[in-house]
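Support request from a user on the community tier.

User writes: "When I paste my structure tokens into the form, the page sometimes reloads and wipes my input. The last time it worked, I copied everything first. Here is what I submitted, just in case something in the input itself triggers the reload:"
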């Protein structure tokens, strides 16, 4: 049987601020984005702030270069690729137009320069060089297949790659949610590499000084922006995968389908200002705090504590009145043995009209299977409950 317990029933285990069913906070109007598709995610609290066509597969243009970078970082972390390694440039890589590092087949380029060339200069040729270097069969197409497989393993269900750089190709697509997931993984999995995304200019070998600047319009504006990648093709329009940090909060935002670089810049700054000004983080409990108890079947103890698996921080609007509701769900009774740290329930938090946030609840102690008398008592309690329930049905 699944039990739902509202917050008002948890008073014994929570602070007064947390032990009220409804907490008066604020509300904010939804952000009306001009983008065809968008996804805005507060990484600190796990709250989705904007979701517009977020799961629709779309041409990602150069934003898909983030997947090329992720795979390259994995190879480096595994020791299979070195930053100071020099790799050759093929005729295929040299043939790319658009935004490039102006590489030629006479070059042998440092891997670190290629990575910066992808991040700062959006080099289509640099992506192809990395792809051919790491491809299972030495081709860019083979690397694109590897990218697709790895994306699916990471939970990116709406991503298919046909090349390494987002050059227009039938079937090359990603969703905004997938790009946000990829961004979060880049930040969490590669903290040593992530600062590269905030580099504002890179003049490779003195070539093409007019193409030395990072296209991210938010870098240097003082809004906390530190990445990641712009994108543009005629089919995709203008898009951006961005992240910004103010204080302890980090925001991830992805959008596509705008009509110009100027509109992209305005939209990006508007999203960041809205998300940080209209919402704030409220703390309602610390990791490992016991917030409820659940009955245990056939255990040495008749119950076990449910504890928070992480600090309970909730993103809430700061203006008009709304409410925050906390609900606990778990299957009752929980069969013994129970292992300390085992996930045995979940806490569901809703604030206004925002998407619910779910926090796993863990057993705060181990409960082994009970002895003969414990099992006898449990059986008696079960029989009594059946009798009571049958009596209630009869009435």
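"...and here is what came back when it finally went through:"
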């Amino acid at each position: 049987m699944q039990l739902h317990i509202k917050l008002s029933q948890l008073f014994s285990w929570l602070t007064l601020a947390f032990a009220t069913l409804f907490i008066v906070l604020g509300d904010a109007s939804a952000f009306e984005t001009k983008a065809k598709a968008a996804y805005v995610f507060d990484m600190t609290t796990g709250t989705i702030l904007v979701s517009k066509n977020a799961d629709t597969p779309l041409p990602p243009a150069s934003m898909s270069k983030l997947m090329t970078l992720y795979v390259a970082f994995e190879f480096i972390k595994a020791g299979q690729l070195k930053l100071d390694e020099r790799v050759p440039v093929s005729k295929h890589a040299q043939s790319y137009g658009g935004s490039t590092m102006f590489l030629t087949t006479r070059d042998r380029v440092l891997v670190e320069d290629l990575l910066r060339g992808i991040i700062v200069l959006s080099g289509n040729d640099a992506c192809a060089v990395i792809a051919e270097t790491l491809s299972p069969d030495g081709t860019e197409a083979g690397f694109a297949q590897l990218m697709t497989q790895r994306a699916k393993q990471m939970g990116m269900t709406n991503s298919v790659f046909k090349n390494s750089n987002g050059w227009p190709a039938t079937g090359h697509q990603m969703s905004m949610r997938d790009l946000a997931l990829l961004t979060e993984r880049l930040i969490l999995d590669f903290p040593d590499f992530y600062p590269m995304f905030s580099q504002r200019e890179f003049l490779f070998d003195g070539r093409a000084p007019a193409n030395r600047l990072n296209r991210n319009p938010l870098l240097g504006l003082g809004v906390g922006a530190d990445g990641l990648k712009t994108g543009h093709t005629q089919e995709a329009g203008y898009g951006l995968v961005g992240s910004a940090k103010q204080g302890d909060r980090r925001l991830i935002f992805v959008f596509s389908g705008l009509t110009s670089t100027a509109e992209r810049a305005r939209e990006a700054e508007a999203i960041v200002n809205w998300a940080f000004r209209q919402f704030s983080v409220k703390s309602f409990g610390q990791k490992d705090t016991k917030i409820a108890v659940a009955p245990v079947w056939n255990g040495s103890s008749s119950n076990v504590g449910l504890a928070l698996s992480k600090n309970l921080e909730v993103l809430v609007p700061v203006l008009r009145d709304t409410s925050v509701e906390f609900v606990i769900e778990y299957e009752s009774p929980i069969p013994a043995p129970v292992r300390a740290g085992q996930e045995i329930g979940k806490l569901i938090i809703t604030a206004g009209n925002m998407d619910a946030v779910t926090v796993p609840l863990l057993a705060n102690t181990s409960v082994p299977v009970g002895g003969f008398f414990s099992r006898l008592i449990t059986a008696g309690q079960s029989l009594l409950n059946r009798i009571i329930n049958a009596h209630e049905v009869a009435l």
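Agent notes: The reload is a front-end session timeout and is unrelated to the input. Residues 7-28, 391-395 have pLDDT under 50 and may be disordered. The two ends are 22 Å apart (CA to CA). Escalated to web team.
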